[in-house]
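Subject: sequence -> structure tokens, single chain

Hey, anyone have a minute? Need the predicted structure for the following. Not urgent.
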Amino acid sequence: MGRVQDKVVISTGGAGGLGGAAARLLTNEGAKVTITDVAEVQGGAFAREIGADFLPHDVSSEEQWRHVVLTVDRK
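Reply:
Had a minute. Here:
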């Protein structure tokens, strides 16, 4: 427990599957997790459920990557 306490994590595809499992585990370990996904409704709901933040994000978009990184960096 606490191996990643206060580390900043971006979990892409975090609305479910492997990305969601990673986000849940890292949140439980104390990381400050931001979930990103194109599935906004599911991603936002899951983020609230596990105590993470959520940002809509299409990983194929360089512009959206910039936005995500800059937004997470400011938190």
